[in-house]
Design brief:
Strand content: under 5%
Helix content: 55-70%
Radius of gyration: 24 Å
Shape: globular
CATH superfamily of the largest domain: Cytochrome P450
CATH class of the largest domain: Mainly Alpha
Order of helices and strands: HHEEHHHHHHHHHHHHH
Number of helices: 15
Strand order of the largest sheet: 1-2
Oligomer: single chain
Number of strands: 2
CATH topology of the largest domain: Cytochrome p450
Structural class: mainly alpha
Number of domains: 2
Length: 309
């Protein structure tokens, strides 16, 4: 009985998928790159066995340095030569610079309100200008030197104490804590050694959940328009939303901590302080481009991803 119900639920998806696929497989007026034969519905997903980069290398040896694959309904051009990469990343940069939109990247960037995953356009250029001038300049980087020195001194102190006690040290966890401490203080103004809502023990769990969200593969990514139903039935949509909700709670706690009454801003404001200050200035100056809390969350979210990488 359960098998019959599953079949009846998925039958509309299958029929709609066939209809969409038949339209997309019509002969194109453009000269498309070569590639392996596609199967109905799944395209070339069956060719991705093992590590993706290994599969692409093996396929490129047969079909050439520029080839066309179909991941479900999504066409993907794979380039594996220096000349092709230069054409895409330099000569045709404006046509290729926007990243693919996926369910996961939409979530972590708060509907593409950052500069890492946002599509190229006027808003992206305005946001990039603000970030480069206010957050990524040499003066700002040098102003955070004391944070790096303090965290490194703390690491040396802990290692020295462990050496004197002749107790083993989990070097992987220790180095992770060092990087997390520096990133949290630089970007969020959060000292994980003293913070109320995040500490050394659960910061690793927070980052693992972030990676889970980024690596999450949704059916919708490969089958736009119909994949959402499968994601809902399989529970993938609920899983991604739950993980995102926990991360959003952390970012909201960071914001609440920065705007609470009586908080003193240090001489070297962190990324959140700088962006909150920019938001206040824009309200007074009446600029056309307006920063929002979603822009702020999107930037610190992707900043966490890049620092972790």
């Amino acid at each position: 009985m359960s098998i019959l119900l599953c079949f009846l639920c998925l039958l509309p998806v299958f029929l709609v998928s066939l209809s969409i696929l038949s339209k997309r497989l019509k002969p194109s007026k453009w000269k498309l790159p070569p590639g392996p034969k596609t199967l109905p519905i799944i395209g070339n997903l069956h060719n991705l066995t093992g590590l993706p980069h290994t599969c692409f290398r093996n396929l490129s040896q047969k079909f050439g340095p520029v080839m066309l694959l179909h991941f479900g309904f999504v066409p993907v051009v794979v380039i594996s030569s220096k000349e092709g990469a230069e054409e895409a990343l330099k000569t045709q940069d404006l046509e290729c610079c926007s990243r693919p939109e996926t369910v996961a990247t939409r979530m972590i960037s708060y509907n593409f309100k950052d500069i890492g995953f946002a599509p190229y356009g006027e808003e992206w250029k305005a946001l990039r200008k603000l970030v480069v001038m206010e957050l990524l300049n040499t003066k700002k980087f040098q102003s955070f030197r004391y944070i790096r020195e303090e965290e490194n001194d703390l690491l040396i102190k802990k290692l020295t104490e462990s050496a004197l006690k002749k107790s083993p040290v989990n070097l992987k966890k220790t180095l992770f804590t060092l990087v997390a401490s520096i990133v949290c203080r630089l970007a969020f103004g959060v000292n994980i050694h003293k913070c109320e809502f995040v500490d050394e023990d659960n910061v690793a769990d927070l980052v693992n959940k972030f990676e889970m969200l980024v690596a999450g593969v949704a059916f919708t990514d490969f089958f736009p328009g119909v994949g959402w139903l499968v994601d809902r039935i399989s529970g993938q949509n609920k899983t991604l939303n739950n993980v995102f909700s926990e991360l959003d709670t952390f970012f909201q706690n960071v914001l609440d901590d920065h705007i609470k009454p009586g908080r003193q801003v240090s001489e070297n404001p962190d990324v959140v302080d700088v962006m909150l200050d920019l938001m206040k200035k824009q309200e007074k100056d009446g600029e056309s481009f307006k920063l929002t809390t979603d822009h702020l969350k999107g930037i610190i979210s992707v900043n966490l991803l890049l620092r972790r990488s």
